[in-house]
Amino acid sequence: MTIAPSSSPFAHGTSSVTKVMLRVIYALLPAIAACVWFFGWGVIVNILIAVTTALLCEALILKLRQRPIMPYLLDGSALLTAVLLAVALPPLSPWWLTVLGVGFAIIIAKHLYGGLGYNPFNPAMVGYVVLLISFPREMSSWLSPQILSDYSLNFAATITATLNGQLPNELQLDALTMATPLDTLKSQLRLDHSISETVSSHPIFGLLGGKGWEWINGALLLGGLWLIYKRVITWHIPAAVIGTVAAIAALFYLYDAETYASPLIHTFSGATIMGAFFIATDPVTASATLRGRLLYGAGIGLLTYIIRTWGGYPDGFAFAVLLMNMVAPTIDHYYQPRVFGHKRK
User: Fold this and answer.
1) What are the tens digits of pLDDT across the range 65-99?
2) Where are the alpha helices (DSSP H) in the chain?
3) Domain residues of the chain, as ranges?
């Protein structure tokens, strides 16, 4: 009797790239609904423009690379990149801003390195950072939930504003926009205003963080926990990111509460929760080992707080992710698990 040789035993799962990507998008739906509620239809318009651009760019590059188009279009990776970047952009962003960011993410950050599975950097964050550095004014023009509660832009007016930059005659774009909560804190601290004075005097802040942002981050938290429950991601990176940001923020807050923001503001006002569950857990660019994921997430949390507090940008999560993307291979090199059957020395 002959026995066919085989390698180590493999466990075959029922998951696929498409299923994983779609589940991440499903987890984003509550947060997208909250974004529409607080910031209007601009989020949906951003998503439509981003998805169209991503699929067209993906098809074009696949055609140039002489690769099959439909299997790669249907795997959901370009769709997820587009949705993540669109949600991170301010509502009423000009159409060309979304097109540039998504085009750079798909063509340069993804396919220039060989496509899905070969890109060393998170494509959505590469596109976001390019836009943030190149067009800081457009990237900081967020809509005010307070003003939108008094005057709601319908879908048609939102499309007109996005495509032509024109609002109804009784409205001006400058009257609708404002800075983000973290940006407000940074600018007010530069003017020697204390944290308590800034929070109490600006209606942009709510109970836990920025008004609107705290609810959106709550929805992102629920979606992220659902991803852990479905085993799409593990708890290591989100726990390390959020725990590190909260712990460092708590230490400095206890040291000087009038100069350093509270852990709640750092957690529920910026991109901490979205980044921890939906960006930092990218299986291609993140650390792949269990202990390495904890170190990788802690590094993102540490860099995020450093950039927010002493850097030139109010958030900094995208920069932190890209910096740790560069370190992830080295982390995995030193935290490789012991080979099965190998005796530890």
Assistant:
1) 988 889 888 888 999 999 999 999 988 888 999 99
2) 17-39, 42-64, 69-73, 77-88, 95-103, 123-134, 136-139, 145-150, 155-164, 173-176, 181-190, 195-201, 213-229, 236-255, 263-268, 272-274, 290-310, 317-334
3) 16-177, 179-332
